[in-house]
TrEMBL record:
Residues 439-579 form the AAA+ ATPase domain. It is found in: Mitochondrion membrane. Transmembrane segments: none annotated. This is Mitochondrial respiratory chain complexes assembly protein YTA12. One of its GO terms (biological process) is mitochondrial protein processing. Residues 182-197 have a biased composition (Basic and acidic residues). The lineage of its organism: Eukaryota, Fungi, Dikarya, Ascomycota, Pezizomycotina. It comes from Salinomyces thailandicus. Residues 44-116, 182-223, 859-903 are annotated as: Disordered. In the N-terminal section; belongs to the AAA ATPase family. In the C-terminal section; belongs to the peptidase M41 family. Its cofactor is Zn(2+). PROSITE patterns: AAA (PS00674).
Amino acid sequence: MASILRRPQNVARSSRQLIEAASLSQTLARRPATIPRPLYAYARSRQYATQKPDGKQNAGEVDKKPGAAPKGMENLYSQSPMSPGGQPPDPNKKPEDGSGTLPGRTQLSPQEEKAMDDIFALVKKGMPASMTQDIDKALARIKKEGMPEELRDTIKECRDEGMSPARAAKLWRLTTQMARHTVESEMKEKQKEDEQPKQQTSDAPGPGTQGKGKKKGSKTDENMKMPEIRLDLSNFLVSAFVAYLLYRLVVPTENSREITWQEFRNTFLDKGLVDKLVVVNGNRVRVHLHRDSVASMYPESPAAQAGFHYYFSIGSVEAFERRMDDAQAELVIPSTERIPISYHEEGGWFNTVLAFGPTLLFIGAIFYMSRRAGGGAGGGGGGGIFGMGRSRAKKFNQETDIKVKFADVAGMDEAKLEIQEFVSFLKEPSVYQKLGAKIPRGAILSGPPGTGKTLLAKATAGESGVPFFSVSGSEFVEMFVGVGPSRVRDLFANARKNTPCIIFIDEIDAIGKARGKQSFGGGNDERESTLNQILTEMDGFNTQEQVVVLAGTNRADVLDKALMRPGRFDRHITIDRPTMEGRKQIFGVHLGNVVSHEDMDHLKGRLSSLTPGFSGADIANVVNEAALVAARESSDSVTMIHFERAIERVIGGLEKKSLVLTPEEKKTIAYHEAGHAICGWYFQWADPLLKVSIIPRGSGALGYAQYLPGGGGDLVLMNMKQMMDRMAMTLGGRVSEELHFDTVTSGASDDFNKVTRTATAMVTKWGMSAKIGYIYYPDGSESQEAQLQKPFSEHTAQLVDSEVKRIVDEAHLQCKQLLTEKKKEVGIVAEELLEKEVLTRDDLVRLLGRRPWEDKGEFSKYFGGGAMPGGPTKPGPNGEPEPPAGGNLPPPLGGQSEPAPSLYQGFEELGRRWRA
Ligand SMILES: Nc1ncnc2c1ncn2[C@@H]1O[C@H](COP(=O)(O)OP(=O)(O)OP(=O)(O)O)[C@@H](O)[C@H]1O
């Protein structure tokens, strides 16, 4: 009753129907139909609402026992998803605590309560205990006070008719309101509870002023805390409610049950309980019942719950309509009172989201790209669409970011001197300007990788204390046309805003390649226009603008000539691999970062002798590796042994302990290496030997002999004698195999490669063959033309071949003579190697006696004895020591295009395919 009174429109509807029922009663009585009509149900519902349910009058046969399942409906009730889990809520029953549902709200059904419990339990996971207690209380309050009817109606609307933006907004508003209301009432109650004991305390006799002061303070604290708790909790509740609503919307089957046509007909249609039918998506029919009638007749039925529906499936809409017509005709329902059927398409909001998915994805992708593209140093003008054309240059702040000074750049004194001029220009431009000198625009730093080009550019910025824009050439290259030039413009625009400053373009060859040479299949327009833009920008500086452009490259030879002309990159600074002295200084810089108790001077000298051809980056790596090796051994300082291991590791890779060799293979390797070692020991011009090993390494070498090219010093020139001795020494492995075994192996292929390359260079480049003469023939790596066509005639080609063969054969003969003579020594060294796996120079001195030739350079200073002091040198024709081979001097070594030094630096590897 109470609920009907609360809804005036219900009262009005019921009284109208009663009047209609009264006027129709005569007709009904005369009808033969046994089925009560919907109006009958309404009338009964009013009766139950006003009378006690145990009243016997007018109950009718079927409904004699209220709450019991009617005939045909037992099955539905006993298996109802709403029925398990205890009794359905009794609307008349007051809550135990005495407070009922609030006005405008309805009690939650047990299933709804359970669903909410589940969702709250899920969201509560991982929350602090204090918070979960508050949430439990709030949840209990919601259960106690019920859910706003408006909210429930909106949920129903969403389920029945689909989600719309207006409904979503309404849901959000109602949910938020409810959550806030719950939290506020909870807080008020808490406040009341807290105030009660305080009142008691203040009423109780206490220590006067002290007590008062304390009370005041605590109240203020509380007031301060409250909004914080409220916000958290209400946010949480809103989230939980939204989750709950979505759950209820997405899983409507929780509140529905599938029935058959027969069940529908017998249980609902025949009994006049059907209000309307909704055909959903043309294949299912949702049955809307007269809830009040169902609730009155069958209070236990889940169909009495709001939001619960029965469904049945249909084959086709036409067949269903025909069946309904037949059924209603059988029931003699006049056409004016037939059950309305509506049609509805569902799955709505989810399908809508799906339909919009690609569009949303596209918008998201564009948004992401625009954010990403906008992440550069930016600030400059024409960023292009979504900032794609903005420069990606990183700007380093001179005060905070660039700590590098010239002192950190060791070696390369000439390069430093050259670049220091830029520093003084940036610091004091007036000195230059007043004399009418034009300021250099930029410098190209070229050299092999890791030689410190970037470091030098940074040090220039660090010393001059100006902003430093660093960008890599490849960052100008994008798949979009026009982005490269646009980025160049942006970079220079930024730089002009920050004058004085330095721009550093690393790997400039990515964009600065000579324009005609870039590719065979036509030019690369994008790259060319980027280069053109750089040329234009560099021209566009006026001499007052203090922007210095430094560029780094490993391939200065491929750069466009226009880039290198005066007025653009005025200075060309070549930074080569460091010399012995340079390596010492670089070791000095990096050794400062590790803990070592070795004598530093000796350590630096020895390490730099051991690392010919290493770049600055290699040296930094060696020092770091040594510290790692020491740490692995739990050593408290890094010692010489650790450094040597690190060098071996950097050159040859890790020891390959897992590789298992057969005894025969080991023996072959030992004799092969012993052959190299004996040659290195007895040939006068061979490089001093440091170590022989037959431990396989990660780089594919099964063994190696380590020499010190140039005796640890800087090898600038090599004469023919040195070359022949080196070649003979390189063939020592194979010759030893020939002399000690009845067959040979494939292990010497790498040696042959080196020997052939040296011999070819002697013939075609260094003018060391009388038959070819003083002619230089470039090879394929030097020019593209040479790749396609040999630079010499067929006749010359045959001559080159025969000359190369002659030189190699001579080296082989020289080696064979020595090793035949020293066959016994080879055996001794090989057997010792088999036993110890690694032999040092001291071992060789022990086995073979001192080397008959004096060691050159700084070798003896850092590597001790081994050579006969002032040992024999071959006398010249007049008894004086023979001078180095003159006349046929090869060109200076050390330049990166020279193959010779790299052939002998480091290890003599046995080749990767020893076992092939
Ligand atoms: N002269 C040097 N003094 C001290 N450290 C050096 C020197 N040269 C190189 N290094 C070390 O090597 C590292 C790499 O050097 P850098 O990046 O400057 O080489 P790069 O020549 O620019 O190489 P790439 O050509 O490959 O760009 C430096 O960070 C530094 O630790």
